[in-house]
Amino acid sequence: MEHHFFAKRKSLIPQPFLSLPKAARGPRRLFTRPQQVDTLTFYTLSDGRKRVYTSADALQGHGTEVILAPEEVSYMNLFINGILQSKQSYAVAQGKLVIRTEDIPIKGTPIILQMVTIR
């Protein structure tokens, strides 16, 4: 027994026609890989009082002891106590990191500025 929904009916409405365009064959790679990626990391500890950190505040023997200008790198990430901070919460200039948040990290909190250059 055939269900009446699937029964063949004669209709004046033509069947839909689906036409897919043929794509031209092009290069298989959609993007190019960067030739080189360099990452520099500036480490310091909060003293619990200041918002401005300079290259002189770097922890000796950990990462780089310089804060690069934003124009010299592709992008930067700031981590305070291991938490990624939004771009609005800090500012970077040559040799200087300014924390713009209302509160200041407590004394001894690690502050890590990651500077990435993609060539």
Automatic annotation (TrEMBL):
It comes from the Bacteria. InterPro entries: DUF4183. Residues 44-115 form the DUF4183 domain. This is DUF4183 domain-containing protein. It comes from Sporolactobacillus inulinus CASD. The lineage of its organism: Bacteria, Bacillati, Bacillota, Bacilli, Bacillales.
